[in-house]
UniProtKB/TrEMBL annotation:
Pfam families: Cytokin-bind, FAD_binding_4. PROSITE patterns: FAD_PCMH (PS51387), OX2_COVAL_FAD (PS00862), TAT (PS51318). This is FAD-binding protein. Residues 72-243 form the FAD-binding PCMH-type domain. It comes from Actinospica durhamensis. PANTHER family: CYTOKININ DEHYDROGENASE 6, GULONOLACTONE OXIDASE.
Length: 493
């Protein structure tokens, strides 16, 4: 990380908090009344005041040097709790010329330090959490720190819902839209970024931009799945669809991986499931189990015809069915998360990897992967997911996918619990790197929320392919000081 074109002192004045005087890029430290002043005569009265709060005590900063992965730890110099979007703009305008890195953070659900920053400023978007629904236009507008759970609650009150949710809905709007947002309904609606009507973004120059596909489209397209490289998403307007009352979920067992993926391809083509995933689990004493998990939405009193839904799917054994109220289905992970928090496993390291595989290579690649994985590789509470998405539905240029009509999201969600027989984190990371390299060799891309060590600029250039020149050009325009979200490591030399 550079320190900018000069060694001027970066000054921030807090409303009612005269102890904070500035940031010295020479020492990468914040100056307070108890530390030497390097302001060199700057008039503090001319500095902008914040509507929110700047955290400086080490005890306040410690949580921001961690994330859900619990693998990477980078200590920021300060954390901004913005009281307004203008606070974010003020901070970025000061930080840019001085080369002070800035990283927006939602719920910190990354696994490899993507939203961390060493010696810079983390923007905690949590205070910006307002959600409103326009039932006539069928849209919801949410500030970036709002959770998808909050958007669900506000929307369902009007009989509406976002079309796509992540499996875990206690994630922030800004966080998932910066990554892409793939879920079980992506087989019908694409990623969450494909269902956004408008954004507000504070760019890396500190400009507040209201954008859409027709208004400042270059900012709109850059921010969606842009990994925070071009600025901070501060609010999003997402399209809504009518919400169902009920959901019937089917779990179907398959004897082999090719049998599972053949069934998944069939139901993607005919669209019989509104929601579709696949779960793979180590079997005892050896081998794997393969399950198709599909769901059909319906109105109360008019359940689906099970025989029609299951016709021609070639599963083994008896299917399992379960009915949910729609909200309970979308929030189905709540009980599991509560349990993992109670046992402490939620706070164990999570060296995840998420890859997007081309259809033609999926079966061979996955069979090789599964042959080399054991229960210890995954961990007691780990999960392996594999589910298809039609590529034509994934329209945003920086959500990178293979050149294939159909793609499969492969998610190896490891838990490295130190008090179990799970493999240690370094071994899991080394395994992730090999999985990534082998996947790239067959035309895959990564879904970049996981833990892949030692990614180089060449790796990122391969990830973006022909779009990397455009990605780099927008970086120079929208973040000319290259301060935004360094934890992704895209432009690391």
């Amino acid at each position: 990380m550079g320190t900018g074109p000069s060694r001027r002192t970066f000054l921030l004045s807090l409303a009612g908090a005269a102890a904070v005087t500035g940031f010295d890029p020479a020492t990468q430290a914040w100056a307070t009344s108890a530390t030497p002043d390097h302001a060199h005569g700057i008039d503090f009265a001319k500095l902008p005041k914040l509507d929110g709060e700047l955290l400086l005590p080490a005890t306040d900063l410690t949580p921001y040097a961690d994330d859900y992965g619990h693998i990477v730890h980078r200590q920021p110099a300060a954390v901004l709790l913005p009281g307004s979007v203008q606070d974010i703009a003020r901070l970025i305008r000061f930080a840019g010329p001085l080369g002070i890195s800035v990283a927006p953070r939602g719920q910190g659900h990354q696994t490899y330090g993507q939203a961390q920053v060493s010696g810079g400023v983390v923007i905690d978007l949590g205070p910006l959490d307002v959600v409103s629904v326009n039932a006539v236009r069928r849209t919801a507008t949410a500030q970036a720190g709002a959770l998808w759970h909050s958007v669900l609650t506000a929307s369902v009150a009007h009989g509406l819902t976002p079309p796509v949710f992540p499996d875990y809905i206690e994630l922030s709007i800004g966080g998932t839209l910066s990554a892409g947002g793939i879920g079980g309904a992506s087989s019908h609606f694409g990623a969450q970024v494909d269902n956004v009507a408008a954004l507000q973004v504070v760019t890396g120059t500190g400009e507040i931009v209201d954008c859409s596909p027709t208004r400042r489209p270059e900012v709109f397209q850059a921010a969606l799945a842009g990994l925070g490289q071009f600025g901070v998403i501060t609010s999003a307007t997402v399209n809504l669809v009518p919400a169902p009352d009920m959901v019937r979920q089917y779990t179907l067992a398959y004897p082999t991986l090719p049998a599972l993926t053949a069934a998944q391809r069939k139901v993607v083509r005919d669209g019989r499931f509104n929601w579709l995933e696949g779960a793979l689990s180590p079997a005892t004493p050896s081998g794997w189990t393969y399950a198709l998990e599909g769901a059909v939405y319906y109105k109360s009193g008019n359940p689906p015809n099970d025989a029609a839904v299951l016709a021609g799917l070639g599963f083994t054994g008896a299917p399992t069915t379960q009915d949910f109220a729609y909200v309970d289905f979308v929030n189905q992970l709540a009980a599991a998360v509560a349990f993992l928090k109670s046992t402490g496993e939620w706070f164990d390291p999570h060296p995840w990897i998420n890859l997007i595989l081309p259809n033609g290579a999926t079966d061979r690649y996955m069979q090789r992967v599964l042959a080399g994985l054991t229960a210890a590789d995954i961990g007691a509470s780990g999960v392996v997911l594999l589910y298809p998405v039609p590529n034509r539905l994934l329209t945003r240029p920086f959500l990178r996918t293979p050149d294939s009509d159909l793609v499969f999201l492969f998610a190896l969600l490891r838990t490295a619990s130190p008090d179990t027989d799970a493999i240690p984190v370094p071994q899991a990371l080394a395994g992730n790197r090999k999985l990534y390299d082998d996947a790239v060799a067959v035309g895959a891309t990564q879904y970049p929320i996981g833990s892949i060590p030692n990614l180089t600029r060449a790796d990122w250039a391969r990830q973006y392919g022909s779009s990397f020149a455009r990605f780099s050009a927008l970086k120079r325009v929208l973040d000319p000081f290259s301060i935004m979200t360094p934890g992704q490591g895209i432009f690391r030399q």
